[in-house]
TrEMBL record:
Protein's recorded name: Type IV pilin
Residue ranges of every copy of the Archaeal Type IV pilin N-terminal domain listed in the record: 11-88
UniProt keyword terms in alphabetical order: Membrane, Transmembrane, Transmembrane helix
Pfam families in the cross-refs: Pilin_N (PF07790)
Transmembrane segments: 12-38
Organism in which the protein naturally occurs: Haloarcula taiwanensis
Length: 150
């Protein structure tokens, strides 16, 4: 008789299910509020990085020169591009793309076929050159292409 009473008495199931549902709804509301009020998603909003292909042509000489050519893809403002040089004698650091050529201004559009020559170092034989794009909206940088000395 006692066993039959336990099998038919399921009154404890309803409160447990109710508590689980209330906790799930509370967590969902808290996550939604945190996303809007704490601005968690703002890093994904804004301008996306351009899709472009670049080639590098190295000429060992005195001084060494490196020609960077925009081969294909999106046009990019010269003011948003910069190169980082490491391992070269005399030109390590960051250089604005528009300062590499006297014909470009920061507002110039770099399109397919555009070329810029970098010759700021006397020796690029051990250098690594990275071409980067800096977002005008967020200030974040993304590497578009890189070149390592042969």
């Amino acid at each position: 008789m006692l066993a039959r009473r336990f099998k038919s008495d399921d009154s404890a199931v309803s409160p447990v299910v109710g508590v689980i549902l209330m906790v799930a709804v509370t967590v969902l509301l808290a996550a939604t509020a945190a996303t809007f009020f704490l601005d968690f998603g703002s890093g994904n909003i804004g301008q996306s990085a351009p899709q472009a292909a670049f080639s590098f042509d190295y000429d060992a000489g005195s001084p060494d020169t490196l020609t960077i050519e925009h081969r294909s893809g999106d046009s990019i403002r010269a003011g948003n591009l910069y190169i980082t040089v490491s391992g070269a004698s005399g030109a390590n650091g960051q250089h604005d793309f528009s300062s590499l050529s006297g014909t470009l201004s920061a507002g110039s559009e770099i399109t397919a076929g555009s070329r810029v020559t970098f010759s700021g170092a006397s020796d690029l034989s051990d250098a690594t050159v990275t071409l980067n794009w800096k977002s005008p909206d967020s200030g974040k940088s993304i590497r578009l292409a890189s070149w390592e000395a042969p």
